[in-house]
Amino acid sequence: MSSTRKTSRFGRSAAEALAASKEIRKTAAFIVLRIRHGGPAGCNEDSGAGFFRATTPRDGGFLPRNPISTAMLQAALDEWTIFEAAHLLRRAGFGGSPDEIKLLHSMGRHRAVESLLVPTEAVDAFPLPDWANREQAVADMKARLQQFQETRRATRDMSAEEAEKFRRNSQQQQQQLNRRHGIEGQGWWFRRMLKTKAPLREKMVLFWHDHFATSIQKVKQPVLMMMQNELFRKHATGSFKELTHEILRDPAMMLYLDTQTSKKGMPNENFAREVMELFTLGEGNYSEQDIKEAARAFTGYQLNRFNGTVTHEPRQWDDGEKTIFGKTGKFDGEEVVDLIFQQSAASELVPRKLWEYFVSENPPEEGVDALAKSFRDADFRIEPLLREIFRSKAFYAEKVVRNQIKSPIQYLVQMLKELELADPPQAYTMNAQQQLGQVLFMPPNVAGWDWGKAWINTNTLLTRYNVAGFITKGAQEASPVAANDDESMMDMQMDRKEAVRAGMMQFAERNWAGPDFEKIAPRSLREDPEKLVDALVFRFFQAPLGKKERGTFVEYAVSKKGAIFTNKEAGELCHLMLSTPHYQLA
């Protein structure tokens, strides 16, 4: 029998994975229970007093055990701890290095919140790929139109079989170009999340991408996804009402929900249904008749796929009277959006989702009512609402801190930021997104991703641990699996996408430098295991761990003291920390 061990894509042996599966199931159950019962992840049976009990004043300043009440938006205490600064940076952004946390803390609570809400970094600070600039995109689309016309002329004198082959080759070339541009666009956005000095803006772009979910798998044209991404950035913390008006004419959304096919006499109800149910009002706050009538109003919008422009064609628009929400008129699409925002429910859905996105699940109805009133009073502007949330006592409550399961994107970006890695291999981050279950520009459906506990199961936990292992280890010597992958790529029966992915992964593995452990775990600290562990615990958790968890890390560090504490071993210590259940929580 061969002694060769089969290894997963992320380098973990099948035997190790099998041995760890029971522990991983226990970990998944622990995380779900932690979310269900509340309390910061660092406060368990063997960790002593709750973390925030040690950092909040005794004179009535202790944060309440139940963070949500009728006073949900009561202002937070004036005291501002470094741990609260870390919490704000994790939730309102993607976490950060110890230096970034200290800088935010030095500002004080109000200035820290304002620095996130009103960043100095320009919206256009990151140049788009050439193909995604509107002028270049229009030129490229015109070139494709010309190529299409030339293809038609070239096939006139060919046999039917030759013509079909010629057309198929041309189509494949365009598909390959679109795939390449799609990967470049996804990588561009991921790097922006990682490098931006305006993390809340990108966190909100991700929120809108999930809220107005649109997938490149149906849209097909990466440039249109990039245009939509820029639209979300433009309105990141601006007017929800204005953004909804613009999404009506957004080319990617039109293709995704088939608005461009909706014509007088043949209305398509997709956009009318989703704009009410998922985007603005929520289920139960409209009638089927409202949808049918609104669909008539949304007719006539035409998309020119060669230049990305949207026009409204009067001849294709149903100009008859419609009755929507009890009002009758010859409404067009823009007027229907205005009618939607006159409904009381229009001020409830997004505030509820924002609270769940940034704070915790299932806010009480009285709390949602307070948020909704603030939202409507602010004329549906996001910035004032977020200011209330980030300044509220509830946001920093003990039951909220370290009690939100990280989405895969949060997990990846935060880990890379904490390891101070600005340029990971794009091939690897793309593959990691796919393995973890959240790929940018590819939400599963119009309802977006399922969040919270949906991110955690035994398979995704094992993948997270292996992702952390790859990132902390950096480039490794060639292994038998690499040779096996090379042979697999030669196998004509291998799935094409898997072959491409295998090649991308091999390239990433051979060109990955990994973290700078001389900076993350300085030699001076390696001589003092207690101080080293404390420094790394602050870097990755910003909260104390229980005696058992911390003891495991100290024991490892002590075992290396006196010997040559290598960077590889420092990476292994970091990997241990990143593979704990606590690290899965933000």
How does this structure look, described?
The protein has 586 residues and is an all-alpha fold. It has a domain at 517-584. It is 56% helix and 2% strand. The chain is built from 27 helices and four strands. The strands form two sheets. The protein has a two-stranded antiparallel sheet with strand order 1-2. The protein has a two-stranded antiparallel ribbon with strand order 3-4. Helix 25 (529-540) packs across helix 26 (547-560).
List keywords for this structure.
27 helices; disordered N terminus; mainly alpha; two-stranded antiparallel sheet; two-stranded antiparallel ribbon; 586 residues
**C-alpha geometry:** globular
| Cα-to-Cα separation, first versus last residue | 45 Å
As a percent range, the share of helical residues equals: 55-70%
- The count of strands amounts to 4
User: What is the count of DSSP helices, taking H or I runs of 4+ residues?
Assistant: 27
Structural class: mainly alpha
Low-confidence stretches: 1-19, 41-70, 475-496
Q: Into which percentage range does the β-strand content fall?
A: under 5%
Work out the radius of gyration: 26 Å
- Spatial ordering of strands, largest sheet: 1-2
The largest pleated sheet is described as: 2 strands, antiparallel
| Averaged pLDDT | 84
Give the SSE layout:
Elements: H1 14-37, H2 82-92, H3 98-106, H4 109-117, H5 134-154, H6 160-195, H7 199-211, H8 216-219, H9 222-234, H10 240-248, H11 251-256, H12 270-280, H13 288-297, E1 301-304, E2 309-312, E3 322-324, E4 327-329, H14 333-340, H15 349-358, H16 365-377, H17 382-391, H18 408-418, H19 426-436, H20 458-473, H21 480-490, H22 496-510, H23 517-520, H24 523-526, H25 529-540, H26 547-560, H27 567-578
Antiparallel strand pairs: 1-2, 3-4
Helix pairs in contact: 2-3, 4-17, 6-9, 6-18, 10-14, 12-13, 19-22, 20-27, 21-22, 25-26, 26-27
